Amino acid sequence: MASPLPASIPATHAAIAVTVPGTPLHLTTLPTVPPSTNEALIHVTHTASTPLNLHRAVGGLMLDNAGGTKPFILGSSYGGTVVALGPSTTTTLSVGDKVFGTVQDGAEKEAGFQEYVTVPTWRVSKLPAGMTLEEGVTVPTNLVTAVHTVVADLGLELPWPVPAGGEWVPRQRDEVVLVWGAASSVGQYVLQVLRHWGYRHVLAVAGGKHHESLRGLGARECFDYRGENVVGEILGYLDKVEVEGGGRSRVPYIVDCIGSLEGTLRPLSKIAEKGSKVAVMLPVINVHAGQDREPELEMDVNKALPGQWKEGVELRGVRTHFYYKNEFLKNHLQPEIIPALLAQGVVQPNKQRVVEGKTMLERAQKALDLLRDQAVSGEKLVWRLADEEI
Ligand SMILES: NC(=O)c1ccc[n+]([C@@H]2O[C@H](COP(=O)([O-])OP(=O)(O)OC[C@H]3O[C@@H](n4cnc5c(N)ncnc54)[C@H](OP(=O)(O)O)[C@@H]3O)[C@@H](O)[C@H]2O)c1
């Protein structure tokens, strides 16, 4: 059973869609869905663009839209105000709360690029006091990605709540975690998660201008991926790492936050060794989209550089979409852990670049073009949906 729509809420609203990959984004109209039990109806005022929008809208990645005949609604994050709760909903949320969350794009009720979303309450985080929605929308998609990657793909523990009094120390506290693409949105959250849970031998690979801020997020050493000999420098560092127990990898944990065949996977294939787990953000980008260039994307990580990896390297393709299969993370990550990490100042939101434009469609398209042109550097693209507050 669903609650009726409040009288002030329109029966339909605007959403941003792609129908045929590679063509401009367009507006479509969707019904506003009354919330059922354990759902919230949210008036969305802010969202953030992510490379996934580009992979969908230009690359056609898993665009499940009946062969280009149906609009696919974009957007994996939303920020706004709760306007109704489903009947008998068990939640600490109230109407009027400012909230944000990560959702499944393509799912008509919940995709983020629309004026109203109807979402399960496990996909809602309350905005901590003193934080803006512009800051909030930079967080959920890639903080969930960071936690999911560390737990599901690297197999490292992140107990919650973190046992007080410093009693809990991760077994792998001093083992190397190499984060390639650490200045990306994903990378910044991976660093902050590892720091909070006490993993203290984290190496960051990122453009030189980001090194100082990445040290502030927990990186012990930084390497510049634009340097001619970056692989040699990292291998030189690993030569000095002392490993307890014979046969262990010197670099047992690697996160590739970019997934570029030539830009990240090729150099990592020279660094990973027997016993290294390499968690790669999917899709693998064989060719990046350009103004006159079609992207080439691959969802099977094992097709990346076959025969080029040392024996005993484990490649893992990250699929955050499935994080909810971990019941604990489903029930606690967005409603409880993310707001707490932000309120405690343990995690800082990404820097925001606000995308301006006369209409929401113009803002969505501008953000997509910036992603295509690889013009995003150490920041998150944020923009407004509805212009009026209710
Ligand atoms: N499968 C999943 O579950 C999942 C989840 C989340 C994200 N992803 C994917 O992960 C990728 C990253 O997402 P994002 O939102 O974090 O991206 P982003 O913040 O937009 O990435 C831009 C950053 O990447 C850096 N970069 C680009 N090429 C690099 C290279 N070769 N080496 C090191 N750094 C490089 C840039 O560095 P400069 O500042 O030096 O230009 C820039 O700071 C996307 O493809 C996204 O779709 C996948």
Description:
With about 400 residues, the protein is α/β, with parallel strands linked by helices. The protein has two domains: about 10-140 and about 350-385, Alpha-Beta Complex (Quinone Oxidoreductase, Chain A, domain 1); about 145-320, Rossmann fold (3-Layer(aba) Sandwich), CATH 3.40.50.720. The chain has helices at about 50-55, 135, 140-155, 185-195, 210-215, 230-240, 260-270, 325-345, 360-370, and strands at about 10-20, 25-30, 40-50, 70-75, 75-85, 100, 115-120, 125, 175-180, 200-205, 220-225, 255, 275-280, 285, 295-300, 315-320, 350-355, 380-385. α3 (about 140-155) packs across α4 (about 185-195) and α6 packs parallel to α7. It is globular. NADP nicotinamide-adenine-dinucleotide phosphate binds near residues 185 and 377. NADP nicotinamide-adenine-dinucleotide phosphate binds next to α1, α3, α4 and α7.
Element order, helices and strands?
EEEHEEEEEHHEHEHEHEHEEEEHEHE
CATH architecture of the largest domain: 3-Layer(aba) Sandwich
Derived from helix and strand composition plus strand pairing, the structural class reads alpha/beta
CATH class of the largest domain: Alpha Beta
Report low-confidence residues grouped into runs of 5 or more. Answer: none
